[in-house]
Amino acid sequence: MARATANFCDASVPAFCGVCRTRFATVYPKGTPIFVEGQDACGVYMLCAGRVKLSTSSGRARVLITHIAEAGEILGLGAALSGDPYEVTAEALEPCRLTFIEREQFLRLLGEDGEAALRAARQLNINYRAAFEQSRLLGLSQSAAGKLARFLLESCAREPRANGASASRLILALTHEEIGQRIGASRETVTRLFSEFKQSRIIRINGATLHIRNSSALETLAKY
What we know:
Blueprint: H1 14-20, E1 26-28, E2 33-35, E3 43-49, E4 52-57, E5 63-69, E6 74-75, H2 77-82, E7 89-92, E8 96-102, H3 103-112, H4 114-140, H5 144-158, E9 169-171, H6 176-183, H7 187-199, E10 203-206, E11 209-212, H8 215-221
């Protein structure tokens, strides 16, 4: 699925370039928290390289991953616009390069530059679609097997493809525990289901690469 970019990291937004002349991008190692759920929103983070997982947790420390942000996205946008605390925790899924802009500077940028405001609107659309996809993932499939099947199908559909390539291969960037946090299941359940899918010849895994061997079977499971 193609996704509109909200990229603020290129040089085509003059007002943004002016703001960033006095700022430096920061590299966050894998696993580093960028901001934490409930923390005051002091600004936004431009994700210029890498991927970041966004998650929320319950009082019992149960974690649900709501979105995997990719390069070009703006993190913390909703909280910065509303003035509310960050609604999720952001953590580097791999080494990431981010640029931080304080909230007041960012709001001033949006007021002065129409292109910047348009890109922020595109990011809000990305956030909306991510919330919609998460609701569909958790709500339409009742069984853990169905949720994992839907997750694999949708993840494959989002993978970049060469011309004519089929959506049947996926690089597994998430651990079994993180996949469980994405679909609302335990790590043990995800590990068991992967084993069952492999034994049933629905999928094949080579290292970090997952190949879908029977997409029809996954589509059938995704309905339950």
